[in-house]
Structures are given as structure tokens and as C-alpha cells.
Automatic annotation (TrEMBL):
The keyword Signal applies. The keyword Magnesium does not apply. It comes from the Bacteria. This is SGNH hydrolase-type esterase domain-containing protein. Residues 1-20 form the signal peptide. InterPro entries: SGNH_hydro (IPR013830), SGNH_hydro_sf (IPR036514).
Amino acid sequence: MRMKMMASAVLLCVATLAQADGQVRQCATTVEPRSVEYPWMSIARWQQMHREQAALAARGNIDVLFLGDSITEGWPKAEWDSHFGRFKAANFGIGGDHTGNMLWRLQNGAMDKLRPKVVVLLIGTNNFGLCGESPAQVYTGIQSVVASLRQLYPDAKILLNAVLPVEQQPDHPRRTNVAALNRQVATLDDGKRVFYRDYGPIFLQPDGTISPQTMPDFLHLTPGAYRSWGDALQPDIARLLN
């Protein structure tokens, strides 16, 4: 039910974010906390999650830091424990976040207290769905997040996830926008500290479509899809920890 509410809210939020002059607000590099009320995530709830994560960051002792939006937030506990229980891993995903929100969170909430060995980053899909930005704009946001992470955690390795495919059909404009974005994001891989990985193909059918059994709303993952993603992520994280 929550996933359906989130999907139905996307069009509402795109309209809400439009300014009086018809321009869509830009989120990519605008460093800001959550400022929009969503039916599935109030500002108060976002603030509460941020406070909880700040307290977790202040305690430290995190080797693998997951950063992202609802796709990261949504890891089922069983799959999280199964795939990442042997790591000192922490989930800092918050639903609805765009790159500007992520930049703000990195500058606040005791994030500078952490010394992760690996950062698993997935961000950007909400820049499309909630902010109406172009692939080039979203790329500048992801580029800024990666730069901020390099400054905060110079010794960490960043596992930079490609934005996952969306929409059922491969020729849908939102899907092609994601593909265009990922071609740019791939250039951030330096083979030393930033490692780009595109796990998107594991969620696609042979004809390129997305099954409802993988993404019921063609955006968020089922537990089985998280299992497949975890199977792919786990060995990559283990290699980067060594």
C-alpha cells in the first residue's frame, strides 16, 4: 500500500513543486533539508529520521555506510541482515530525498564523525520524479554528492550505484532519461576511490521490461528484488573492504 501511495504521489508532487512562473524548482545542488510535505513522508517524519541517523552517526563504529532515498531506506530486515550482517553496516536512506537533500544531510547530523571504509551511494531518481530535472542537472547533483563524500571521507571507497531503471517499458521517457544520466555518472569512476556499478539489468526482463513482481510500481523493489540486489552488492562491498 505504501508503495502505491508513493507512486501516486509523484505526479502530485511534481505539480506542487512548480513555481508560480511555471518553472520547476531545481534540486540538484540546492543544499537544503526536506521542505515539502508528501502524503507518504511528512517534514516532521523526515526530521525525526534525520535526528535518529545523526545519533547513530555520533556513535560511529560504521564500516559500510548506505546513503540514498526510499530505495535504500526500504531494505527488508531479513535481506539486510542476510547480506550485510557480517559488515558493520548502517542504512542512512530517507524516502523522497533528492541530491540537494543529500548534500544537506552530509553537512549536518554528525556525519563528519564517521569514518566509513565503504560508502554505498544510490541517489538521483527523485530529482527526476519530484523535481523534473534533466539528466545533465541530476548529474551535477550526483557529482556534487560524490565530491562531498570524497572531502568528508578521503580514505573511503565509494560504491556508486547507477540510478535504477524505472517505468515498465524500456522506451518510456523516464527510463531513457535514467539511461542518459547513468552514461554521465559512469564517468565519475576513477578506479581508485570511486567505483561505478550498474545493477539495473538484474531487475529487467529479457525484453527490457520491468515485471510487477520486481517493482510493483515500476520504481520500488519487492523483497525478492532486494535479495537479487543484495546478492550482487555483497561481493562488491567485500572486495572494497579488503
